[in-house]
Design goal:
about 30% helix, about 375 residues, Aminopeptidase, Immunoglobulin-like, alpha+beta, five-stranded antiparallel β-sheet
Length: about 375
């Protein structure tokens, strides 16, 4: 069969440059009206029984080229199981080596979470008893901004994900969190819902998700730089979510992301906000310690540089929520690569591990929720 590459589907992103024998040269397409790019997702046909070399030629110009070192691409024959394949980076070129068993395979930066799967998730959760669903508003491409409320106790807990659409592990995490919140037989869930009302936005950036963007919405806006002054023209997603937060208040919040370079799971906090307090910080640190205690897939040694006093970026949601509401807020970062302290040579960091980490985060919240409630009460 003739080799062929395509990406004209939900979340797809690649440009074919040339095919020469078993070598295929490709380029990642920039986000619309933006210079960001790194997410790729494409279909390869006609390669069964052949060893093919796929070269992404514009790797050096990607948003985080340091993320290519030690990275391995994801390949699937059924779009359910995504295993890692040999990948190298040299001279600005990302080279993926594959020997597919099928004439139809899919290759991606991370296991995709398509808008079709998102719609299935929304349909299943919205049908559950005691869950309130509504759209907070529409995006610039006319998609609904899906929101769930799990009514419960007085503490207001917000979970939101995928401001950066190419960070698909964030919605796999959301799937795990929602599954657990819906489990009425789980004692942790039952206790959490006695103490808190949960507000969940599983995908903050449906336009970018469908368009195959790495980091921006339909008009090239990085949503996680809009929280100080969102607008309907540039960032309606943040505008609508923040308006609902203003209505409900926020006591505890997790913003779920993925990191290109660091091969670990870690938290980023609100250090450096003008109204920072030691008690607020102690509760954040207590949650991190509880998460370390419940899963070996989380650690606190690796992470981002901490902002100096008064130097927090209030355009980012975690800092904005901590300053605006006094919330215990945090950004959870998961790797595109793997947790190098507990590596999986077949799957690397994966959808299953993302879902399990969500469950562990709810365990950590359960361990700390009484102290958070006392502080906020």
């Amino acid at each position: 069969m003739t080799l062929s590459v395509s990406s004209a589907f939900d979340g797809g992103n690649i440009r074919l440059v040339a095919i020469a024998g078993d070598r295929i040269d490709l380029e990642i397409v920039k986000d619309h009206q933006s210079d960001f790019y790194q997410w790729f997702y494409f279909r390869l046909t006609g390669a069964a029984g052949r060893h093919v070399t796929l070269r992404i030629l514009n790797g050096a110009g990607a948003a985080y080229p340091h993320g290519w070192a030690g990275y391995r691409a994801c390949l699937s024959e059924d779009r359910e199981e995504w295993r890692r394949v040999d990948t190298s980076y040299d001279g600005g070129v990302l080279t993926i080596e594959a020997a597919p068993a099928s004439n139809s395979v899919w290759i991606a930066y991370f296991a995709p979470y398509t808008m079709e799967r998102h719609h299935d998730l929304v349909a299943s959760v919205a049908a559950a008893p005691d869950v309130e669903y509504r759209s907070l508003g529409q995006t610039l491409d006319g998609r609904e901004l899906d929101y769930f409320k799990f009514p419960g106790g007085p503490l207001q807990v917000w979970l939101y994900a995928r401001q950066h659409p190419g960070e698909t592990m964030a919605e796999w995490w959301m799937e795990g969190a929602l599954e657990r919140l819906l489990d009425d037989s789980d004692p942790v869930t039952r206790r959490l819902r006695q103490k808190a009302t949960f507000h969940v936005v599983p995908n903050m950036n449906p336009d970018g998700s469908f368009r195959g963007h790495l980091r921006t919405n339909a008009v090239g806006t990085n949503l996680n730089r809009e929280w100080h002054a969102p607008s309907l023209e540039k960032s309606p997603e943040v505008f609508h979510v923040r308006a609902e937060m203003d209505r409900t208040g926020v006591d505890f919040a997790m913003d779920i992301h993925g990191d290109e370079a660091i091969a670990a799971n870690f938290l980023a906090g609100f250090e450096g906000i003008p109204r920072w307090s030691q008690k607020q910080q102690d509760l954040y640190d207590g949650f991190a310690s509880a998460l370390v205690a419940v899963t070996p897939d989380f650690q606190t040694e690796k992470g981002y540089e901490i902002a100096a006093p008064g130097q927090a970026n209030l355009s980012m949601s975690t800092a904005q929520l901590a300053e605006r509401y006094g919330a215990i807020s945090m950004t959870l970062e998961m790797p595109f690569k793997d947790n190098e302290d507990l590596a999986d040579p077949v799957y690397g960091w994966s959808p299953d591990r993302s879902r399990l980490l969500a469950r562990a985060c709810l365990d950590a919240l359960h361990a700390t929720i009484d102290r958070i409630a006392a502080y906020r009460g």
